[in-house]
Amino acid sequence: MPPAVCVRRAGPGDLDGLGRMVLRCSAESIRDRMHGGTRRDDLLREMRDTVLHGDGTVLVAAERHRTVGCLELVRRAPGAPRAEMALLVEDDRQGRGIGTRLLDAVPACARSAGIAVVGFSVEAGNGRARRLLRHLPAGGLQWQWQQATLEATWHVGALR
């Protein structure tokens, strides 16, 4: 039986584990997450900035003490009620519900950070991500295809 997965907000102590997880990911997984970019250094810099200084949140999925996935919510303007979402799960852990667990944590995490709307995009060829989106509540989701990319807006609920 695989170890239980814990999803929680990342802190500075998670940066090394995030770095090791990104290094274990294939170029294809990085490309799908970054929509064409394969530079791990850029991805790690963005996550580090979000955890330490950014106006956003990084969630980590961990098995015991090993980070196996992450989800970023990044505001493009300080204090904005909208954030952009990006998800990455280690290749050999994909298809095991980790992405679903990370997505399940988004509404509460976003609302606690003052985020009411989460935007994201998925390329048409990214079947894994398209299947994962079936787990999102249809009532709060608006989407449209723009060329070969699904552009979506997820209304995660009223701010408290």
Automatic annotation (TrEMBL):
SUPFAM superfamilies per UniProt: Acyl-CoA N-acyltransferases (Nat) (SSF55729)
Limits of the N-acetyltransferase domain: 5-160
Stored InterPro entries: Acyl_CoA_acyltransferase (IPR016181), GNAT_dom (IPR000182)
Listed GO MF terms: acyltransferase activity, transferring groups other than amino-acyl groups
PROSITE patterns in the cross-refs: GNAT
Any single Pfam family the record assigns to this protein: Acetyltransf_1
Protein name: N-acetyltransferase
Originating organism: Streptomyces spiralis
